[in-house]
Amino acid sequence: MLTYGFGELRTAADTMRGLRGEVEERLGPLSDEALAKRLGISTGALRSYALGRTMIKPAVLRALAELAGVQVSRVYAEMGWLPRHEVSAVRQSDLPEQLRAATSAVTRLSESLDGLASQDTGRAALLAAGAVLNDEQAAARFQVRLSALRSGVRCPAPTTLVAEFTPGDDARPLTVDDLTARALAVGLRPVSEASRDAGGADAGSTRHRLFQAELEVVTAEALSRAGDCSWQGEPGTTLWRPVCRRWPTHLLVQHVLTGQPFADRLPWVSTDGLPVVVIGADYSIGPAAALLAKALGWRFVPVSSATAFDSGRLVRSQALAPATRRRQGWGAAARRAGVLTEPAAPWPVVMLVRPYVFGDQDAYDAATRRLLRNVRAHLVYARPSPEHLDWWARRRRLTARDAQPADAWTADILGALTRVEEVLEERSAALGSDHDLRLRLAPPSPAPDAADPLLPGALTDSHFDAAALCLRWLDQVVNRGRASLLRELRPSALRDHLPRTDASGRTVAAW
């Protein structure tokens, strides 16, 4: 059994109190009981750690650091658990001038959307930029530029944040052997295999692929905690060209709203305590889920293949085999929510589930739909118009040379939407027509241009309209007999834009 001296216990207690202060700056005041529940420990254990009576466990300290938005490795180094020279985390004071300026710019942009801090909005762009500019070799080889794309007419807001990495004029790709060694060190596949995937590529494409491999290696650890994002700019694609300095390029793209989960903050309390599951995507009502969560003060969880829960706490996991990857995160989220026939503690969460989760008809299809049928939650779903689907299918073709043909993708998504609607009919018959909310999106006007990297203004406006409809529906369904929910909204973009939302049904309507 390990024993610890007074100084070690005091250091641990001081570190824990400091992290708790940072947690409460982000989430608001928390009681010992509430914090202990978030950390998955008893209240007695929490108080024992805080008083320096017992040494905090590494897993608990890690969970606390993640709640505080603090680099775990840096906290471990301060505790003496890691050599400081092995910690490569980025402190604001350590950032090169280029990154400090970019961070400041993105923070100002972030503040215009929901008041989110920069660690919550556009996190992928900042983390990747920090990783590159704090890698001595990469910093000398790449120029980094961060920018934001805005959309919306009635309800304008930043929608997409991008980081562009441009190799210097004198930079030469690293050798395959060097890249492969670095890739294996961070758990990526050997670069030689990736190069063979592009067989027959010309010299320019090979050069681009090697620079891209270097960036993926350098940013791998940082992006493991960055939410959903994607690399764009490969030769043969065109969508993002208008917003870049050079083409082809190396562009990291993240949707401001749907790309990153965020924690609850002074959550509004519904009468039944059920979470809300929004079934949608960027081309339908996906962003409305994040807008709704922020306005309610609820946690937002965009479900992905890496979504998992440990003692009720959101964590990341490794994706399983391809046959189950799409469903892995949804299964974890549905199990955490529970089933309608069993009691459970209130869970103020808005989850976003993409329709493609329900797209495959195979051995797992019945189980996937059964989870949706029985999940202990209110469901929100919107049927996109054919024009929405056609626009997105054509847009996808401009982002990857091997993208699925537009007609095949549309057929798959229509099949997934049909299966979701069948489950909603079953839930309506069993639970009543007002338990879940079904919406229909009107065709966007004017017709969107698939080649424009900016999201259509009408689409962004409809995201706010859909979120406003959700608020009014929740006010009727789970707020009866109390003051209007619309008077209880937390500071957010939805609250600010609520007077400008359209409730006429011209963009989105219940059905």
Description of the molecule:
There is one protein chain. This protein has 511 residues and is an alpha/beta fold. It has helices spanning 6-27, 32-39, 43-50, 58-68, 72-78, 97-111, 123-133, 136-139, 176-185, 191-197, 203-223, 286-296, 322-337, 365-374, 386-397, 406-431, 457-477, 493-497; strands spanning 142-151, 157-167, 230-232, 250-255, 276-279, 299-302, 307-310, 313-316, 349-353, 378-383, 437-441, 508-510. The strands form 3 sheets. It has a 6-stranded mixed sheet, with helices on one face. A 4-stranded antiparallel sheet has the order 1-2-4-3. A hairpin with a 5-residue loop joins β1 and β2. α2 packs across α3. The chain is globular and about 60 Å long. The N and C termini lie far apart (63 Å).
Give a summary of the structure in a few sentences.
By secondary structure, the chain is an alpha/beta fold. It has 18 helices and 12 strands.
Tell me the layout of helices and strands:
Elements: H1 6-27, H2 32-39, H3 43-50, H4 58-68, H5 72-78, H6 97-111, H7 123-133, H8 136-139, E1 142-151, E2 157-167, H9 176-185, H10 191-197, H11 203-223, E3 230-232, E4 250-255, E5 276-279, H12 286-296, E6 299-302, E7 307-310, E8 313-316, H13 322-337, E9 349-353, H14 365-374, E10 378-383, H15 386-397, H16 406-431, E11 437-441, H17 457-477, H18 493-497, E12 508-510
Parallel strand pairs: 5-9, 5-10, 6-9, 10-11
Antiparallel strand pairs: 1-2, 2-4, 3-4, 7-8, 11-12
Throw out a few tags for this protein:
12 strands, 18 helices, 13% strand, 511 residues, single chain, alpha/beta, four-stranded antiparallel beta sheet, six-stranded mixed beta sheet
